[in-house]
Write a structure and sequence with these properties.
Elements lengths: L1 H6 L1 H18 L1 H4 L20 E6 L2 E16 L4 E25 L3 E10 L18 H37 L1 H16 L2 H10 L7 H16 L1 H14 L3 H8 L4 H12 L1 H24 L11 H7 L3 H5 L3 H28 L5
Antiparallel strand pairs: 1-2, 2-3, 3-4
Helix pairs in contact: 2-4, 2-14, 4-5, 4-7, 4-8, 4-11, 4-12, 4-14, 6-7, 7-11, 9-10, 11-12, 11-14, 12-14
Length: 353
């Protein structure tokens, strides 16, 4: 399987990108230049700053990682402040710069960050700022942890439900199979968005962000297990008459042991490919729910929450980075996960030459 997977160059590159995305999620506190809720009222809707490597001075040019500061102009017709980059205002930037204190993984107290301004009081908005002057880059990095982890946790729960119920349905057959299949058909017949909205509306508004996070994960899992259950049921129907299954039954193995020890491992490669292809669907589902305002809510930061905050005319016209940056992250994550899943599926297919 690994030999075949290595020949799939797109899947190999996508796997490296997916690994990088999860590393960003793992070290979000260290990689983010600022805290996700840190705001500055002097830089509302500040545009993105471009990182530069050379500084031109009267004495000549020199190497210096930097960004340019802002010149603020008050637009009295639009009644808002407008920012332009000032090439004469040089803000030095360095790696492992000091910033606001934070706790890495909620355990280790630290001040150093991967990159930041030498003077923490200076503005540093590589991807721009939002309506409260919060750094979009930092919020996107923190949102990576929530959005990508929902995909993993949701797919894990869907995997457990799909393998368990699909296995029971395919192994025992009869009335048990009929009941489970009718439940699956009922769930698949309901339009997805109305079902999400109905389940999400049942979440009390008084719940904490952590409770809402787990509730949304469970909602996505309750909807996402049906496809895998159908596949597992079909494989169990074909496997339960194989010689090695009959031999295990004659040797006195329990039904649970036959399912877990013999049947599930025989198509584990297919399950891995199905799980990889299911994670993008979970990410899109969380993003859709949060964008519609019925999923995760502030102060939780996810890609869907960031997109939900950008759904107004001013954001699209005057601050397009509020929409483009999180949308680009969703597109990259979904595409790479799909390419990785395609590569795993092709590598796991014994008939693929």
């Amino acid at each position: 399987m690994w030999w075949r997977f290595r020949k799939h160059k797109v899947a190999l590159v996508s796997g490296a990108i997916v690994l990088l995305i999860y590393l960003v999620a793992l070290f979000a506190e260290f990689l983010a230049p600022a805290l996700p809720d840190a705001h500055a009222r002097d830089y509302l809707y500040a545009p993105p700053q471009k990182l530069g490597l050379r500084v031109e001075t009267e004495a000549g040019s020199r190497w210096q990682l930097h960004v340019n500061g802002y010149t603020v102009f008050m637009n009295r017709e639009a009644l808002r402040r407008e920012f332009t980059l000032n090439p004469d205002h040089i803000i030095p930037v360095r790696f492992f710069a000091k910033g606001a204190p934070y706790k890495l993984w909620g355990i280790f107290e630290m001040e150093r960050r991967l990159i930041g301004p030498v003077d923490p009081s200076e503005p540093f908005y590589v991807f721009g700022a939002d309506r409260l002057g919060r750094d979009i880059l930092s919020r996107v990095i923190y949102g990576t942890r929530v959005s990508m982890s929902i995909g993993l946790v949701g797919v894990f729960l869907s995997l457990v439900l799909g393998v368990l119920l699909g296995g029971i349905s395919g192994y025992f057959g009869g009335p048990v199979d009929e009941i489970i299949q009718r439940i699956i058909e009922f769930l698949r017949s309901i339009p997805t968005i109305p079902l999400w909205m109905g389940l999400a509306a049942a979440i009390p508004r008084t719940w904490s962000p952590l409770q809402v996070y787990f509730a949304i994960t469970v909602i996505l899992s309750l909807v996402g297990w049906t496809g895998l259950a159908r596949v597992v049921r079909g494989r169990f129907f074909s496997l339960k008459t194989e010689d090695f299954i009959i031999s295990a039954r004659l040797n006195g193995s329990s039904q649970l042991r036959i399912i877990i020890k013999h049947m599930v491992p025989s198509f584990m490669s297919h399950i891995i490919a199905s799980v990889t292809l299911s994670i993008p669907a979970m990410i899109i589902s969380e993003t859709s729910l949060s964008f519609l305002g019925i999923g995760l809510r502030p102060p939780v930061v996810s890609w869907g929450v960031l997109l939900q905050e950008a759904q107004n005319i001013r954001s699209v016209s005057a601050a397009p980075w509020l929409l483009m940056v999180p949308a680009f992250c969703v597109i990259i994550a979904v595409l790479t996960m799909n390419f990785l899943g395609d590569g795993l599926r092709d590598a796991a297919d014994p008939y693929n030459t």
